[in-house]
Structures
1.
Amino acid sequence: MSKDTVVLAPCVSFVLNSDVSKPPRHIAIIMDGNGRWARERGLPRIKGHEQGAHSVRAVTEACAELGVKFLTVYAFSTENWKRPREEIGALMALLEQFIAQELPGLMENNIRLQAIGRLADLPNNCQRALTNAIETTAGNTALTLILALSYSGRSEIIDAVRTLCCEAVAGRLDPEKVDAARFSAALYTRDFPDPDLLIRTSGEMRLSNFLLWQLSYTEIYVTEKLWPDFGKDDLRDAIAAYHKRERRFGGV
Ligand code: FPP
């Protein structure tokens, strides 16, 4: 019997993700609860986002240490544009500052920065900071940190459908040849594997329009912790829970 097989009862066994020396290759995170964290302390919401940026740094470092290859964080959704103008402005300023501040650390730790979403919607200074960091870190190979910005799963799928329709109309694509692989190759995430583990903080049981196609077989871990309180030990707990899961990908 392999070390990955657990005997539950004499005639029942199943396979776990129990090679604990191997972390999930790709972790995706819905970073929720910044506003509640601030409210509990009588602070403005932006203070929660600022503290949330510290958690992004801590979790990125932890992923690099643990050997995770891809980390995708939901930093700003297409729906977040409906928030008050001051909060959007503060979040964009925080994003620009975060990218500039983190760049030396990303280089030092061999971390590549990437972004997914309707990036043209971002203010010009954010786009410039992002492009600069993406280009500067392009050759790094330890971990890829992917910021989902002005992102939603539905808009990503719509953009992919448009791309494929244009290809078909131009005569470069036979519609009969569209399959899961061809569709995946039209998504923003075409260069990344699907997430193995999705973490959502603050206890909400929703996908909130995040990576709708890519999460089909992802293990989901929800914690009550608010994102600004989520740290390295919480990441380790999430990975430990993942290692106890049975992944069958629709098989038996
Ligand atoms: C959700 O919490 C969080 C966001 C909409 C923004 C996430 C942003 C950060 C973690 C900080 C900046 C990130 C980077 C990469 C610089 P919420 O505001 O909806 O919280 P609530 O549900 O408690 O109100």
Note: The chain has one domain: 5-152+185-246.
2.
Amino acid sequence: MSNMTSAAKAGLEDVVATSSAVCYLDGERGVLAYCGYDIHDLAKSATFEEVCFLLWHRRLPARAELGDLQSQLAAARPLPEPIIRLMRSLPPVDGMDALRTITSALAHYDAEADDMSAQANYRKAVRLTAQTANIVATWGRLRAGGGAIAPDAVMGHAANFLYMLTGKKASPLAVKTFDVALILHADHEFNASTFAARVTAATMSDLHSAIVSAIGALKGPLHGGANEQVMLMVQKIKTPANADAWIRKTLADHGRVMGFGHRVYRVEDPRAKHLHRLAQELGKQAGDTSAVQILDTVVRVVGEQKKIFPNVDLYSGAAYSSMGIATDQFTPIFAMSRIVGWAAHVMEQHANNRLIRPRAEYTGPTHATYIPIDKR
Ligand code: ACO
């Protein structure tokens, strides 16, 4: 029975759940900053490894510190042999399901899995960031019938991932594009998956468990799963010439258009314009810009009719497709970047923990009389 006044906020919209020094978001002005650094500056000038250091230490690294982190990430890439065997034994499930299962299994081979000290959490964050990239690449190959490729200890995080996924050294443009995409996805305040991670961590559960909770939350099409749905929409539209009529009909039928709208942004997601540019550049290099042209038409019509704007998930898939990456890898790739933010938030939660346990406004029946089962 409720003893509360009706204060429930559907979907916890605009509810400030706690304070955090990791990520700043202004939905009215379209501002996103990691630890004070604007996302546009980071996308232009930083590397993914620098952003890992930034989110985990809340400051930019000195050159030697960055070198140390790069070496630690490279050293953590190889997966335990039983994990590779487990991957081979799975049925051909969705990439996010595979990532969730394998990340959970990794805890059994991590000697510090249950150590919740700040130092152990940091070391696990490094290991999990390196290992999830390996899992996503290896799963992509196994599922496509190829053999697993051993990581290259000399390459950076983005270059090594593309090499492990494709078996070929990626072009400098592909590596740079992928690195920027990883930076853009690394954190986003209290989004659904990060909140899931923090709720799990706040019970003083371990980092692997928190990350597994987050992977499950990211998978849904209203969150990270939207990037795959966008590409499926592009495939249905087929050609730029079909886009205008297709999207008008979808809106007339009250369809939800993936890659648009946001709980916080009232303007365009600041990450979208970078992904648009990268998708365009890679499309030109690959000799096919049709996906971007289709999406540009969809943006124009959805903007005119619904006044909603692209989010981070709209153009990322077009960029990944031009690199030859399969559609069902897009959300796992999102996860292999967001894991950095999840880990930063779990470390922040553990450093000043209080159980997260909100209330619900009860709307069910009251004073029900129990009837024995043979009298119902
Ligand atoms: N397509 C069509 N209409 C939309 C969309 C959309 N993508 N997004 C919002 N709207 C409309 C709704 O129909 C609703 O209109 P109404 O008030 O006339 O009924 C209004 O805008 C508000 O929508 P809500 O669903 O209440 O907004 P909410 O804040 O709960 O949802 C969400 C945000 C889930 C992101 C939503 O915009 C959506 O479903 N987008 C498509 C999925 C997507 O792209 N998700 C990725 C988000 S970014 C990320 O998580 C990484």
Note: The domain at 226-322 is CATH 1.10.230.10 (Cytochrome p450-Terp; domain 2).
3.
Amino acid sequence: MHTCSSSAAPSLATDESTANASVFLQDVLTGLSKTRKELHCKYFYDERGSRLFDQICELDEYYPTRTELGIMAEHAGAIAERIGSEAVLVEYGSGSSTKTRLLLDHLDSAHAYLPVDISGDHLQQTAQLLRADYDDLEIQPIVADFTTPFELPDAYVSLPTTIYFPGSTIGNLKSDEAIGLLVSIVDQCGPDGGLLIGFDLAKDAAVLQAAYDDAAGVTAEFNLNLLHRINRELDADFDVQRFAHVATYNQDESRIEIFIESLDEQEVCVGRQQFHFEQGERIFTEYSHKYRVDQFVSMADQAGLKMDALWTDSNEYFAVMHLFPV
Ligand code: AVI
């Protein structure tokens, strides 16, 4: 019989990383105890997960990254015009700020750039590189999880602010979470500010299927890496070979749904807690919503935002939209 012998109960949080580890453990235990087991997609991005995501962005099948970059490259001037002069630009999930450079190059006397990212190290490196290239621009990195409310530094709160939210990360949120985030964006940008957002458009199911289940298996590795991470960080014993990546397109909900499927009946320990898996049972890991423009406009409307301008590529695969609070 499979028993969980670990002594690794979460210790009392004494520093930030211990506190993060116990939140991670709690989230995993709660998620795996649900009738439909689930793990939050924000946990994909440990060091290996972030590297795998970078590889996904380079895949032939994964069109969103290069398509959004193409839209930004083609329309940066027009986009910068809609944002206006002396902007304070706040970027959610800035990563290495590649698309932002296209924007910064065209903005008229931008006042400040505030990249927001959960990874402090990455943020500092990016800020350093940007400072070298944009000496007149104030660059003030903010380490925060933008999916939960956070404050801008006092010096910027009364200035008209444009929130830049590229990458279609909004599509990974459930629709009530997405509306909640848009509402907090309205709050943060103020009545004279705006939102510039990139989102993925609904399209042929075969194109979507290939993008989330690529031939080289990089997305599968990315998804299953979550189990490796749980094994390593939470003293668990997932036998990762006995699980498989599944990505399906749900036409009715217009979203890709990603799961980890158990290949046979098995028991798994996470710390001292044991979980039973039936053969074929799935752990839900991620939604990736694909919007029609009118659907996105109506979601934004519920949050108090109105479309100002829209840019897409020639295939209409991806959209970049500028919105104002109403
Ligand atoms: C980060 N996000 C926008 C990606 C997406 O396309 O939904 C995450 C991803 N998951 C699997 N492949 C890419």
Note: The CA atoms of residues 63 and 71 lie 12 Å apart.
